[in-house]
Amino acid sequence: MSSYDVIVIGAGPGGYVCAIRCAQLGLKTAVVEGRETLGGTCLNVGCIPSKALLHATHSLHEAEENFAKMGLKGKSPSVDWPVMQEYKQSVIDGNTKGIEFLFKKNKVDWIKGWASIPEAGKVKVGDDVHEAKNIIIASGSEPSSLPGIEIDEETVVTSTGALSLPKIPKSMVVIGAGVIGLELGSAYKRLGTEVTVVEFLDKITPGMDGDVQKTFQKMLQKQGLNFIMGAAVQGVETKNKKAKVTYKLRKDDSEATIDADVVLVATGRRPYTAGLGLDALGVELTERGQIKTDAHYATNIKGVYAIGDAIEGPMLAHKAEDEGMAVAEVLAGQAGHVNYDVIPGVIYTSPEVASVGKTEEQLKEEGRAYKVGKFSFMGNGRAKAVFMGDGFVKILADKETDRVLGAHLIGPAAGDLIHEICVAMEFGAAAEDLARTCHAHPTFSEAVREAALACGDGAIHA
Ligand code: FAD
Ligand code: NAI
């Protein structure tokens, strides 16, 4: 038995970042991880492998669609799927090994195995019981399916199965037009799969700004994705490695079916807390099964904290990381804090979609007076040069004070451009502050400045 200041359960972005920060702040720290490799969902079966496939398939698309236009002639590359899978695995391995290195460098112990909490101050792994002044649960999340659908990770898959299919399917039905469905759906479309997305609501990516939703769906349709909107999936039948999806259109209750080689169920994720012994310990959960915490990530049990996908809030790696750092600082006697008003969300399709702060719909609902500065990438020389003129930057600012309240981007490098606006929001900047900042030419960032100018006297290149 060993004794620690902090034991973190789970080595995803929440847990591993938290452990490193705890160690940096002088706390004796261990992490328990049951998986064979560190990095959690994000590095093993989430953010990292999906971005590897998105990058590879985007490169293929560039070669097929744009190379010849630039005078780069010759045969388009063909897809060697096993090699693409090896590439994806090498990206995963590089990243998970990197966390192992960081643990050694920071003197964080990795206790291998699955943890439970028999009582406050104790963590059980196998037959060993370790002592910890503080326990931080960072156990993450798992895919949630629908009633009537049995996942076999072969024909009916979650994102985990979809990232490692043995071959590229001829056809795929994606259930859910959320982040996972659209990222992976668009990657397979570029590989030649016939992709049909079936979505319960009438708009894709629920919660996003309405302008972005409309433009994004049009762009994806142009890329060849089919959408069946307002359709409630009733069930999936499988026979001889083929699937039949039954759905009911909400507008008239009519039922229809669609066949596919693979069905990707992407209808959200739920907190993963199985096996921790939370019930016996008396840890309070929310109605949605998330671990309840206060503003300092403390549960109702003294010395037990929780962060990341296992608690409330957006299920994003960077949100988990920020909470990990904040709780480490709280335990070290500092003022750990996360500003939930400025957490960016990015969808890594081509083009990327990025958003932060309030949507126009939210501002309308709040009855807040606002102004909109919008700039199309068509007016951005750099974007046009790389065939990425579709899309826009939209900045929402307070009508009176000009303070930036939100931003919504669809276009080249949107996932990077958003951070300039995040920093502005953290500093309580006005749109004019962005507009008066000199931006290098020719960059995609100039579109952000132009949108900020459009909040005032007007964009120059519009
Ligand atoms: P996790 O990463 O889920 O890690 C939890 C870890 O805890 C796991 O490794 C698990 O094995 C371990 N664990 C659980 N219980 C125990 C136990 N009892 N004992 C020991 N170990 C335990 N987010 C983004 O921000 N950007 C993206 O691009 C993005 N892409 C994604 C793509 C996909 C396909 C998926 C599925 C998710 C994606 N996400 C993305 C979401 C992101 O992966 C999660 O928000 C993030 O991983 C949450 O981090 P976490 O530390 O809370 O939990
Ligand atoms: P999601 O919550 O983004 O989308 C689920 C979609 O499924 C919604 O549009 C919903 O309306 C739809 N749906 C629900 N029930 C349905 C039904 N019966 N029939 C048809 N449609 C139905 O969930 P998703 O895509 O599974 O992602 C899970 C989490 O992973 C997200 O919360 C996201 O934060 C995270 N993630 C983040 C990424 C990123 O940041 N780039 C990438 C991938 C995942």
TrEMBL record:
The keyword Protease does not apply. Binds 1 FAD per subunit. Its EC number is 1.8.1.4. The active site is at residue 441. Residues 4-324 form the FAD/NAD(P)-binding domain. PROSITE patterns: PYRIDINE_REDOX_1. Belongs to the class-I pyridine nucleotide-disulfide oxidoreductase family. This is Dihydrolipoyl dehydrogenase.
